[in-house]
């Protein structure tokens, strides 16, 4: 009998599916444990070996917990809405729902490409997912509940007094009986005060507009990242170096009316909640920085010759007498009002330039200094002196008030800005208010100084100065103490097709919610997925997209009469909508009436272990915590936090392969037939190369490439050109710039696991390589290898399907865990797979040989038991500590020891199969079955470690003479020093060493050393 992984794994994967082995129960008497992987997006590219790393780790832990007697929920689904599917639909003319379905279930797309499908790829690796609970965010039976949650947010406000979200009806009740003067809510800035009588006298539309200023999801004009090339708003994490991550299109800042969510209402709770969860400090710190709590004061500066007032938030109100200038964000609404006619052209040009940079880019760029003087002056609240007002892109409209009071003597960025524009109109001399030297740099410390040249603050320190200035500002009614947060409300609209439709229609431009009993509002069919000709989002192309309020259904848009039929919202929800609550849907995935029942929510409560990438620290993880807290406020979620423990798996890196190519160019004298029609003085290189037998390029070795880099020439290349370019004179290499390039090639072109490229495969790989010669055609070409991110674009992807087909899923699972600590980045090396495969074959040889089972009922030896219980202890500790790589090492040690001991005892091998089961479940199931057991090994109790088998009764002592070890002696550990000395002195080897001498001293430490001195 031989180890045949493909046959064994197919057998047990079928068994698990048919018997629903991993189906979790909602009403089990067992203790619950909920293990979750971050929602994958099902791209057409499928899985590479880097994707399953976290899934394998979570699966090992899930299987271990089942062995421990837990009712484990380990579900899987798909975050299947999103921009990539929509862009693919635009490019290929396919429906996003069709391509998404093929990407998940497998099949052939419109282009004829065979797609393996995420589900089949995942099943092939042997994960213990409860597939009965699968969810897809793009299915109407799922997004029906996302729409329902949106409506709950719309119908809620945040009461600061109760510190939670409450139904909007309670706010209406307050307004109708007492007005809004004493309402302590998270709401828009600058809300006008009204009485109860005012409220009750307002028209319904006026009341609705006021309520929009308080709702947790609301419409407002917001600065967004607008991408004209994609026709949509982008989130910050969808932008790289100022362009869209997808397609590389230009992104500009633009004001648009958008749906937003008041995540800022939960800033303090999001901050404090980090103290109650078991997450890495790095992730917690990322969230703390993103939330950005600051304690300080708001200050109002009047603008001279204007009714305008500039509000700023500062953490250093004590430095108010050091204000030299003010800076507004280029997008600040006051800029257009206060800019003078003389400065308007320069200011407008700067605003246009700034709009092309994303907020993230502006925040990260601390080196570039740029700005423009508006021509306006503000008035200092105490001295009444004029303060020049500038705009600068280092100030963001959405952070704080979008304005800063610049104190160069106390802030490095203000200091650099003031010095850069020193001497220009509108830039005053830096004023120093510290008893410190600022000739070389700003003084930014909050201690170790006294204020000077600061009027009534002279002689005070930071703490006393802050308290004093706030008191005086309040007297002037130009400021007050305040706690501020960097966290801004989240834009919730996207100008896309492939997303959740809003359950919203509009009456006189005001949003109305569709009654929840009529959900879901299903995404309509459209002919094209691009914006309309007049710039409306893709849903503007829909012909059936209007809401009939009499029949409560979606009907033809031509029937809109704004009487009983109204237009529906044309934007869709962002990608993070469906992923902000999905863990709760898994708890009760088939409930049609609610997103999950109270009983299911009460039983599962929250996720016990969450595994995923650290790149979601300030996106998904913040949004999901926000939604969970909101649902807790409204009585739906049972816990404040959704994820108790979070582990971020590291990235598996690919090893790319590169070749070096010399581009050849000609300087020969040409006939007129080669000249371009539009330029008689230029060579038409394309025609030249078509007419010539000369090659366009040449592949050279890394060694020659390095020589060229040093002296811009290489004799071997020159000689090759001379011998191989007959028919065309004066071929020359452009060594610099694009003349010699390093380009990545597909690693599948390499021969076996070597670094030697198959030259013919390379020539047939892509059109540009056909006919391309190698400088040394008769020799092996060794590619350059570099470790970098595994990516389809870098041609360094290894698919798990290939590994599973050749070596089996158990080998893949063990190897990925063996690569290194889970949370660290690790390079992939396919050559290492064979060692793990060999280990599994060696494991099998303990159980069977060519003739079948060789397990016996013989009593295990002391060494057998020691090897087993060492492994039980180590593996249990490693899994609990998420040190999966060291468990695999222990398996190898154990199998080597048992093989050396010629152990075939059932008492050892049966528990060993259970211990290895979380890591290599297929072979464990097969061995368990071969041993005569029925049913799955998956829920068999994990073996109990017994310390007695590791207690040593003997010790092998090194016996030394004057510190040099001469021989060893095995003695019982319970001997006294005197008994040990007696045995040592009588040993023939001791007598021989001493040659009749008597040692001066005999040093004995029981259990450790024996040393005879003198």
Automatic annotation (TrEMBL):
Placement of sequence motif 'KMSKS' region: 789-793
Record localization: Cytoplasm
InterPro entries, per the entry: aa-tRNA-synth_I_CS, aa-tRNA-synth_Ia, Leu-tRNA-ligase, Leu_tRNA-synth_edit, M/V/L/I-tRNA-synth_anticd-bd, Rossmann-like_a/b/a_fold, tRNAsynth_Ia_anticodon-bd, Val/Leu/Ile-tRNA-synth_edit
A GO molecular-function annotation: leucine-tRNA ligase activity
Residues annotated as domain Aminoacyl-tRNA synthetase class Ia: 11-155, 782-815
Main location: cytoplasm
Reaction equation(s) it catalyzes: tRNA(Leu) + L-leucine + ATP = L-leucyl-tRNA(Leu) + AMP + diphosphate
GO biological process, one term: leucyl-tRNA aminoacylation
Methionyl/Valyl/Leucyl/Isoleucyl-tRNA synthetase anticodon-binding domain location: 865-977
GO cellular component terms attached to this protein's record: cytosol
Annotated residues for binding of ATP: 792
EC numbers on record: 6.1.1.4
Record keywords, A-Z: Aminoacyl-tRNA synthetase, ATP-binding, Cytoplasm, Ligase, Nucleotide-binding, Protein biosynthesis
Pfam family, one: tRNA-synt_1
Domain of life: Bacteria
Domain Leucyl-tRNA synthetase editing: 288-473
Stored HAMAP family: Leu_tRNA_synth_B (MF_00049_B)
Family per similarity comment: Belongs to the class-I aminoacyl-tRNA synthetase family.
Name of protein: Leucine--tRNA ligase
Source species of the chain: Flavobacterium sandaracinum
């Amino acid at each position: 009998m031989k180890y045949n992984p493909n046959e064994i794994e197919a057998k047990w994967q079928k068994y698990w599916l048919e018997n629903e082995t991993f189906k979790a129960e909602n009403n089990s008497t067992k203790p619950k444990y909920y293990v979750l992987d971050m929602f994958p997006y099902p791209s057409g590219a499928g899985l590479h070996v880097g994707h399953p790393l976290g899934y394998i780790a979570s699966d090992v832990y899930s299987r271990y917990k089942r062995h421990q007697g837990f009712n484990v929920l380990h579900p899987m689904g798909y975050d299947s809405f999103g921009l990539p599917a929509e862009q693919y639909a635009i490019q290929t003319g396919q429906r996003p729902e069709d391509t998404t379905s093929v990407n998940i279930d497998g099949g052939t797309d419109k282009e004829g490409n065979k797609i393996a499908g995420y589900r089949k790829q995942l099943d092939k690796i042997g994960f213990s997912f409860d597939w009965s609970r699968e969810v897809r965010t793009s299915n109407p039976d799922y997004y029906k509940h996302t729409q329902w949650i949106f409506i709950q947010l719309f119908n809620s406000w945040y009461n600061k007094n109760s510190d939670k979200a409450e139904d909007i009806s309670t706010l209406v009740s307050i307004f109708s009986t007492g007005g809004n003067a004493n309402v302590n809510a998270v709401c828009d800035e600058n809300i006008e005060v009204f009485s109860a009588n005012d409220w009750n006298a307002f028209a319904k539309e006026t009341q609705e507009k006021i309520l929009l200023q308080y709702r947790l999801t609301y419409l407002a004009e917001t600065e967004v990242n607008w991408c004209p090339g994609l026709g949509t708003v982008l989130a910050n994490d969808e932008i790289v170096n100022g362009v869209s991550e997808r397609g590389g299109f230009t992104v500009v800042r633009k004001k648009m009316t958008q749906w937003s969510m008041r995540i800022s209402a939960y800033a303090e709770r999001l901050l404090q909640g980090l103290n109650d969860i078991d997450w890495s400090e790095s992730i917690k710190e990322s969230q703390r920085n993103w939330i950005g709590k600051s304690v300080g004061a708001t200050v109002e500066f009047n603008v001279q010759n204007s009714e305008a007032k500039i509000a700023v938030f500062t953490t250093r109100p004590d430095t108010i007498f050091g204000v030299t200038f003010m800076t507004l964000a280029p997008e600040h609404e006051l800029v257009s009002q206060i800019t003078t006619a003389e400065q308007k052209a320069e200011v407008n040009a700067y605003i246009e330039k700034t709009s092309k940079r994303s907020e993230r880019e502006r925040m990260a760029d601390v080196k570039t200094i740029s700005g423009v003087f508006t021509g306006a002056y503000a008035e200092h609240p105490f001295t009444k002196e004029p303060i020049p007002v500038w705009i600068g892109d280092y100030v963001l409209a959405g952070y704080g008030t979008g304005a800063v009071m610049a104190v160069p003597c106390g802030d490095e960025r203000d200091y650099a800005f003031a010095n850069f524009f020193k001497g220009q109109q509108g830039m005053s001399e830096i004023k120093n208010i510290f008893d410190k030297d600022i000739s070389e740099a700003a003084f930014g410390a909050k201690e170790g100084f006294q204020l000077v040249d600061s009027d009534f603050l002279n002689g005070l320190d930071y703490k006393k100065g802050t308290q004093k200035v706030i008191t005086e500002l309040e007297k002037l009614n130009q400021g007050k103490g305040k706690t501020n947060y960097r966290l801004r409300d989240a834009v919730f609209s996207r100008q896309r097709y492939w997303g959740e439709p809003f359950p919203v229609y509009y009456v006189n431009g005001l949003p109305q919610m569709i009654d929840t009993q009529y959900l879901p509002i299903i995404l309509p069919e459209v002919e094209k997925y691009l914006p309309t000709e007049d710039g409306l989002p893709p849903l503007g192309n829909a012909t059936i997209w209007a809401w009939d309020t009499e029949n409560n259904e979606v009907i033809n848009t031509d029937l809109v009469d704004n009487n009983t039929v109204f237009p529906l919202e044309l934007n869709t929800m962002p990608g993070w909508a469906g992923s902000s609550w999905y863990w709760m849907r898994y708890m009760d995935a088939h409930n049609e009436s609610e997103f999950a029942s109270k009983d299911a929510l009460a039983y599962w409560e929250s996720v016990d272990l969450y595994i995923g990438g650290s790149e979601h620290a300030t996106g998904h993880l913040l949004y999901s915590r926000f939604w969970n807290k909101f649902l807790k406020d409204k009585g739906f979620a049972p816990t404040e936090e959704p994820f108790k423990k979070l582990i971020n798996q590291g990235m598996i890196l690919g090893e790319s392969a590169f070749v070096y190519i010399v581009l050849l160019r000609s300087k020969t004298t040409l006939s007129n037939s080669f000249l371009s029609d539009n330029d008689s003085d230029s060579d038409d290189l394309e025609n030249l190369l078509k007419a010539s037998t000369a090659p366009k390029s040449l592949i050279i070795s890394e060694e020659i490439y390095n020589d060229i880099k040093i002296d811009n020439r290489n004799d071997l290349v020159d000689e090759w050109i001379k011998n191989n370019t007959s028919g065309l004179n004066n071929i020359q290499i452009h060594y610099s710039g694009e003349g010699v390039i390093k380009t990545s090639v597909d690693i599948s072109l390499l021969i076996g696991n070597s670094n030697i490229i198959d030259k013919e495969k390379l020539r047939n790989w892509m059109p540009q390589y056909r006919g391309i010669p190698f400088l040394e055609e008769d020799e092996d070409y060794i590619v350059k290898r570099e470790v970098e991110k595994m990516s389809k674009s870098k041609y360094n992807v290894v698919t798990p399907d290939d590994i599973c087909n050749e070596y089996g899923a158990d080998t893949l699972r063990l190897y990925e865990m063996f690569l290194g600590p889970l949370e660290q980045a690790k390079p992939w090396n396919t050559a290492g797979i064979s060692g793990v495969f060999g280990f599994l074959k060696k494991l099998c040889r303990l159980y069977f040989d060519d003739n079948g089972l060789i397990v016996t009922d013989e009593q295990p030896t002391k060494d057998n038991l020691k090897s087993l219980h060492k492994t039980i202890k180590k593996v249990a500790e490693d899994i609990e500590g998420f040190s999966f790589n060291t468990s695999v090492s222990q398996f190898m040690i154990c199998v080597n020891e048992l093989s050396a001991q010629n152990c075939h005892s059932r008492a050892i091998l049966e528990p060993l199969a259970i211990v290895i089961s979380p890591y290599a479940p297929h072979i464990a199931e097969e061995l368990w079955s071969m041993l005569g057991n029925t049913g799955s090994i998956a829920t068999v109790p994990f073996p109990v470690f017994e310390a007695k088998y590791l207690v040593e009764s003997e010790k092998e002592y090194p016996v030394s003479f004057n510190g040099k070890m001469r021989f060893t002696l095995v003695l019982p550990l319970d001997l006294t020093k005197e008994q040990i000395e007696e045995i040592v002195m009588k040993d023939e080897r001791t007598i021989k060493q001493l040659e009749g001498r008597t040692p001066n001293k005999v040093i004995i430490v029981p259990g450790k050393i024996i040393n005879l001195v003198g």
